[in-house]
Amino acid sequence: PGDTSVLAGLYGPAEAKVSKELPDRAALEVLLRPKVGLPGVMERSREQLLRQTCEAVVLGVLHPRTAITLVLQVLSDAGSLLSCCLNAACMALLDAGLPLAALFCGVTCALQPDGTILLDPTARQEQEARAVLTFAIASSERKVLMANTKGSCSVEEMQQCLAAAQRAADTIFQFYRDSVRRRYSK
Amino acid sequence: RTVEPLEYYRRFLKENCRPDGRELGEFRTTTVNLGKCLCSITTADGSALVKLGNTTVICGVKAELAAPAADSANKGYIVPNVELPSLCAERFRSGPPGEEAQAASQFIADVIENSQMIVKEDLCIASGKLVWVLYCDIICLDYDGNLRDASVFALLAALKNVQLPSVTINEETGLSEVNLKQKNPLIIRKHPVATSFAVFDDTLLIVDPTAEEEDLATGTVTIVTDEEGRLCSVHKPGGSPLTGAKLQDCISRAITRHKEVKKLIDKVIKSITPK
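YS: structure for the whole thing
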């Protein structure tokens, strides 16, 4: 959203290297490349978050002993990077036609010092905020698939952000539907 | 147990208990060893050894002097590093840090940052010239699940144990003089405590998973709280989806756990201070 853009490329299910293959399900790998520089520790932890989120929705058991590789390239970062990556990943999974148990979308909430909740903050708003929470919301019953917080907040504030994120998820899922429709209607 | 581990666990979970005899909400016995006299590292400025059941984590804090960055002249640095050497579990090989170690290092860095445990301005000696850098090395000696809780706990205990020598800047020469005789403890503002849960089959939540339970779980959640009941971090990397209510249960349990852990740390510190 806004100026943040992430390019997602999905490869798979393809043949996996013997060292990496799992006997009963597909092995998922996520590579996150920052705009400048080499991937560091921050990218690794983001990759792990994305990987486990994708593993939860992708029906890996239908493709055992294969490898699914997801490569994300950050083109520009103007805030809400993690949820942009999540959305890009989900659309890539959709576009590739992989069997999914549910769709997911990423929503970032920033808690400002005065207590107001701001959705999809810009980089400036993220820095000024007291806390930034990112959630991945699943399409089935709006459950929480992934949660990551930066900064501290109280429990009530977290619940409020979660509720706001769940409402926002509806808009994002509508966007997914529209995009897919546009792609396949030609 | 080896052939059908999931079924084995399911049978136990149906009775609301686990193979090692614990309840779903019960933690393993936690022991903490602080400082130079009981064990731990004599060359480090602060150290602690934490055992959570079989999971053993040792944390050493070394303080060094450095010049601050140009844009934050009055802030020191804290550099956490989590190591999972191959001796702690058979799945970790030696060589560059694997994904798990890097993700754990990032997690610890986030916790320190989010909870404002150590305010970086406190680490400043002379603005623009000299600041403290705290290198926190967290090494896992035995991995039996729940690495994050043990690491956060070890870090907290080690930092409480750190004694920084006082440093003055000599006006004429501009050099620093370290006075090893006079030591001050670190100012720790908040005490974050991590609580990890494993999710089974989208419904059951168990606390403090062992390595076996972690492998079988469909998801994990880690919640870090500080003493005011504020959330410093909610880390739920994928895994089965949870409803908001379930997450709330986890948070309440985390807050209770925080009180238990705080009592334990205070007790241990009191027992080593009169020396």
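YS: worth flagging: The mean pLDDT of chain A is 79.
IM: good catch. Also The two ends of chain A are 25 Å apart (CA to CA).
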